[in-house]
Amino acid sequence: MSADLKWVSWNVRGLNRPIKCNKVFSHLNKLKSQIVYLQETHLLNKDHNRLRRSGYTQVYHSNLNIRARGVAILLHRDVHFEEVSTIRDKNGRYIIIQGNLFNLPVTMANIYAPNWDDEQFFRNIFTLLPNLDTHNVILGGDFNCVLHPVLDRASTRHNTNTNANKSSQCINTFMQNYGMVDPWRAKNPTAKCFSFFSPPHKSFSRIDFFLVDSRLLSLVRAIDYEVMVISDHSPVIMEINVSGYSPPQRNWRFNTRLLTDQKFMEFINKHIDMFFETNSTPDISHGTLWETFKAYIRGQIISYSAHDKKQKLKRASEISNRLKIIDQCQTTSPSQELWKERTLLQTEYDLIMNDKAIEMHFRSQLQHYEHGEKASKMLSHQLKQKAAANHITSLRNDKGDIITDQKNINKQFLNFYKKLYSSDQCDTVTIENYLEKIKLPVLTEADKTCLEKDIQIIEVENAMRKMKSGKSPGPDGFPVEFYRAFSPKLLPYLCSLYKYALGAEVLPPTMRQATISVLLKKDKDPLLCESYRPVSLLCCDYKILTRILADRLEGVLDKIIHPDQTGFMKGRQLYSNLRRVFNIIYQSNANVDPEVIITLDAQKAFDRVEHKFLLKTLRSFGFGQVFCSWVDTLYKQPEAAIWTNKILSEYFVLSRGTRQGCPLSPLLFNIAIEPLARALRSAPDVLGIKRAGQTHTLSLYADDLLLFLSDPHKSIPKALNYIREFGKVSGYLINMSKSLIFPINEKAALMPHNSFPLTVATEKIIYLGVTVTREYKDLFKHNLKATLNQAKRDMERWSSLPLSLPGRINSVKMIILPKFLFLFQTIPIFIPKSFFKELDRLTSIFIWNKKIPRIRKEFLERRREEGGLAMPNYMYFYWAANLYKLIFWGMSKKNENIPLWAIMEQDSYISGSLASVVSSPLPLDKKLIPNNPVILGSLKIWQQFRIHFKHKQGLLSAPIVTNVLFPPSFIDSTFQVWANKGIDTLKKLFNEGHFLSFEQLQEKFNLPSSDFFRYLQVRSFVKKHFSPSLQTPPGSWIDECLTLDPSKKGVISYLYHMFNTAAAPSLEIMKKQWQKELGLEITGTQWQQITKFIHKSSICIRHGLIQFKVVHRLHISNSKLARIFPGTDDTCPRCRCETGTLTHMFWGCKSLQAFWGVIFDSLAKAWNIKILPNPLTALFGVTPQNCKVTTIQASALAYSTLLARRRILISWKNSRPPSHKQWVEDIHSCLKLEHLRYAIKGSTQNFFKSWKPFLDHVKKFE
C-alpha cells in the first residue's frame, strides 16, 4: 500500500503579523500540504507554538535570537514521523531532522542560505547530513543561488554572465558525488520556471527547489511551482509516493459555525419545511422518511457550503490563474504593461485574502478574549504535554508478526473486533436455568409503568439539552448542536420516529451504525489490539433516544442494584468502595483466618455482554415488555466500522456487547453483572470477610470487581467457579494473568499462594486510581507525596507559558486541584499542615512566576463575587472532603442514602454514637478514641479543622441518644422516645439563643410530666459539656456543616465556601485607603458593587485582572515607589507637581481632567443620561446613586470606563496623558470582538441594544 505525500517549500518572508500568518496557513491548507519547509519565519523561540495550527502537530524549528531568518519543518497530523535526531543551526539558517517516515528512513533538511555567494555555508551543511548511505535525503528551501545560470535565471536587463557561482558549483558537486537530483529539472530538462522575482534587479530566478536522493526520483509523482502570492517567493510543491502511507478518508461532519450564519439558518429551515411537506405521506414509513431527510439535508448543507466557498474564492482563483500566465510571459517577453497589470492584480488578491485572514484573526482573537485563560479547553490544550499523535504505527498480527501497513493495521483491528463482538450462542434454556437459581429483586408495577410510558416531546428536548456540545458526531455527521438549532421543527418528527421504531422493532439503518475509534489504555502494550479501548461514535438521534431511556432507568435502578455496585449509579460515589476497602484492611480483627482481597481483571467486560443474556436478565428483574422491547430494538443488528489512522473499515454486525459511548450502556451493564454479584454474595462456600458484625464479599465499580475472602484455599476456587459459570451464559471472562491476590493479614501473607491461578501482590495494589497499601501509614507516601512531586514537575513545565495571574490560578484549578481533591475524597488519612505549606509554596512560585507575591494569598482565595480570584485553598478542600464523610456518621442506618462504609464505621464504634464523638468538646478523651485507623484519621482531621478555627467547645448538633458523654442515654429508652418526637439533637433544646424550659418543651414536643427528671439530666449534661450559661454557644456555622444533607450535590463545594467565608480577610482596609485618598465615603452597597464589577465589567479575564489590581491597589504608583526606594521621585510623571498616588495617577491629575471630561461627556450624550465626571465611575465603573441608568447602560458604563483605565495604564509612566481618540479606538477594537461573540451566539440584537447608542454617537463625533 502506498500513496502520494505532498511536500511544500516556501520562503514566507515573516510570520510575526497575525494577518500574514493566517494568510500563509490558509494558503497551505488550500495546497493540502502535509510536510512543509518554511524559510524566513522571523520568529523567536517562544513564538513557535504559533506554527502548531491547521493540523500541523509536529514542528521542528531553528531560529536566530532576533526577528530575522528562521526555518521550520511542519508535519501534518496525518503524517507519522518518528524522530531519531535533530540538528539546529543557532543562526536560524537550517534545520536537519532524521527519522522514520512511515517506516521509511529519511533525512529532511530545510535550508535558508545567505543571499551572497557563500560556498563554505553549503560545505558545512553537507558534512552535517548523517547516514547518506542508509537514509533517503530530501533537501529543500531557499538556496539563494541557481543551479543552472542560463535556464534558472531571466532578466529584463542584458546580462552576459552565464557562469555558475561557487555556491552553485558546490551544490552541483555534492549532487554528483552523493547521487542527489533536482526533481523539477529532471522532469523539465529544458523548461524555464522561476520561484523569485527581484524588483530592484528586474530579474526572475529559480532559487527555491528540492534536492532528493536519486533513489526517490522514480517515486516523485509531481513537482511544480505555485504562483507568487502572499510572499515574493513561489511555493514549491512536490508529491512523493511513500510506501505505508494511505491518504486519510474524509468523513462528512457538519460545521457548527454555519449556525451563526443567518442566511444558512433561513436556508435550512426552508428546506426542512419543504422536505416534510412534500414527503410526509402515509405510504412512507417514519424510518424511511427520517433516513431520507438526513441524506437530503446533508446534501443541501454541502451544496450551500460549497457555493459559499466558491463565491468567496472565485475572484481569488481567477487572479491566481492570471498571475501565473503573466509570470510566464514576463520570463520570455517582459513588458512594463504586464508589470503594472501584475501589481494591480497582486494588490486585489491581497485585499481578498486580507479579508479572509482578518476574519480568521478576529475569530482567534475572540477565542483568547472570551476563553483565553479561563478554565476551558483552550487553556487545557496549553497545559497538557504534547500528546503523541493518535497514530498506530505498528501492531502484532495473529501470527505474532509485527505489521506496519496502515490498511493491514485497520484490517487486524477489524478481525479482532469481529471476533470480540461475535456471540458464543448460549441457548435460552441454559440462561433461564442459571437465572432461576439466583434470587433477584423485581420492579414494582409503578416503576414498570414509569419506564414504559410513551416518549414525550419534552423528554426529547431535555435529552438534547443534557448532551454535551463539541462532541464528535456519529457516522451521519450531525452533532447535537444541529438538532438543538432546529429543534422546534425536528422534535415532532423525532418523537414519531421513536414510536415507529418501537412498533417496528427495528431502528433505521444509520441509527444502528457506529464508528469505533480506539484509544490506547495507560501503560498498555501498543502492539496488542486488546490494549486499546473501543469508543463508539454514535449518531445523535440514537443517543437522544438512549439518553431518554437512561434517564428513566436511573430513577429505578437503585431498587434492584445492591449498594455494593457504585459505578454509574445515581447518588453513589467511587470513594465509597475505597473507604470500605480501607476499613476492611486496617480495622483490627480477632479472626485468625487468613484474609485476602482479590482484584479481578475482566477482559473487555462491556464488549462481551451477550444480548440474549441481557434481555433475559431484564425480564428476571421484572422489566416490562415495552422496555425490554426497546433494548431488543437497540441491539437488533447493530453495526460498526473501525476507524484507525484515518482509515474506515467495512461495517460488520455486533452480536454482543454494550456500546461504550452510549448513555444507556453502563446502566445495562450494571444490570447484566448484578446476577454474578448476587450469586457470590449468597454462596455459602464463598466466605467473605467479617467486620463489625457484617460480612463483606465483594465491591463493584461498573466492571471493576473486588472480592473480600477469608479461608482463601476454600473460597477462591469456589468463587472462580461461580464466575466461570456466569461467564458461560453472559460472556464475562476474567484475565487470570492480570488478576491479583492481596493478603491483608499475617496468616494470609504466610500461606502458600502457588495453588491459585493469580499473581500475588504483597505490599500494594492499584484500585480505582488509588494505591492501596498493606500499612495505613504508607498511603501518604504512595499517593499524596507522589502527587505532590508530579504537581511540582507540572508547574515547572508550565512556568514558561505566557499566562497571567488568573490564567495560572485557573491552571492550578484545572489540573492540580482535581488530582488532590480526588485523593482527599478517597483517602481518610491525616495530613500535617506542613504538607499544605509546601504545596502552597510551590503554587505561589508558579502563579507569581518566581517573583515576589504582590498580595496575600488569602485575598486571592476570596470568591470572585467577593473581590478575589478564587485561588484554591488546598487545606480547606481537604477539610471539606473529609467533613463531608463525618456527616454520614450522624445518618440513620435506616436512611436509604447511607453508604455501606458509613454503616461499617458506625457499627465498629461500640462505645456509642460516632456523631456524639464528633460534637464533643476538644480535646477528646482518650477513652473515646477508637482503634480503627480510618475513624481515627477522620477524627484527627476533624480536630485539626476545629483547632484551626478556634472552636474547641462542644457542638449543639450532638445527638442525645447514645451520646458518649451522656451515660443515661444508653440505659433510659425514653430518650429514644424523645428522638422520635423530634428532640434528637441538643440544638432542639434551644430557641432564640436560650435553653428551653421544661414547660416549653412539654408544649412543643408533647412530653409527659414524668420526664422532668430526664430534662434535668439533659440540662446538667449541657451545662457541663456545652454551655455553662445555657446560652447558644458561638460557632453555629460549624454546627450547620454537620446538619447538611450529604445525598445532595455540591456539598463539598458548599462546605469549602463556608470555610472560605469564615476565614476570608476583610477588604475594609482597601476601602478605607480609597476613601482617604478620594476624600469621600464609599457606602457598603457601593463597595459591594465595586467588588462585583471586578469580574463582571468584561468577559475578558485580562480585563478582570486590571480591575482586580485597581481595587486591591496593586499598581505601582510613584508615591509607593518612593516608599519602597527612598530618594525616588514621588511626583506624578505627567503633571510633575503633585504626589503620584493611585487616585492622582488614575483620576486627580490635572492632565487627565480633559481625558475624563470628554469620556464622561461622550457617555452622557451616547445614552442620554445625566452623569458628571466622578471618581467612583472613573475608578470602579460604579454609577453614582443619584444617576438613574438601566442595567444595560450600567454594564456599558462599567466596560467603557474599564477600557479608559486600561488606556491610562498603557501610558502609566508617560508624560503625555492618553487621548480620547485612543480610548475610542480601544472600544472599537474590543467591540468588534464583542459583536462577533454575540453573532456566534445568534444574539446580535442584544449587542446593538447595548452598544448602538454609543456607536451612533461616536460616528457623529467623528
UniProtKB/TrEMBL annotation:
Signal peptide: none annotated. It comes from the Eukaryota. GO terms for molecular function: catalytic activity. Residues 500-772 form the Reverse transcriptase domain. InterPro entries: DNA/RNA_pol_sf (IPR043502), Endo/exonu/phosph_ase_sf (IPR036691), Endo/exonuclease/phosphatase (IPR005135), RT_dom (IPR000477). It holds the Pfam family RVT_1. This is Reverse transcriptase domain-containing protein.
